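User: Please predict the structure of the protein below. I'd like the answer in structure-token form so I can feed it into my own downstream comparison script.

Assistant: Understood. Taking the following sequence of 128 residues as input:
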Amino acid sequence: MHSEGELSLSNLLSALHVSLHPETFVFTTFPSSSLPPSTLPQQMSFREDEGLTVITTRQAVQQHGLKHTFHCRMITVKVHSSLEAVGFMAIMTKALAEKGIGVNPVSGFFHDHLFVPEGKEGEAMDIL
């Protein structure tokens, strides 16, 4: 089965438009043997051998009293890229890396999202 969304790198780059989410996000983790609180909003979760990683808002972890790391801002790429698109994420992350900006990229079904360190979001938006 072929994935939906744009595959052409030139089409993706010509349609590249980004938006900055207003919230500050953080990463937190839960042991494999437990679940996050049902009231914790999850922007993304990923199960690893060591436990469950959850990206959520700084406000949410503070309300729940959870340990967390990497205060970051989410930049959403407003083009529906295929999950099979080759090189699109690499071009964006390389452009940020060349300016010394770390990034944690996440691909959703419809869009790609770049989590950049809080305080670097303006520069990252300008680069992209």
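That's the full token string. The mean pLDDT is 93.
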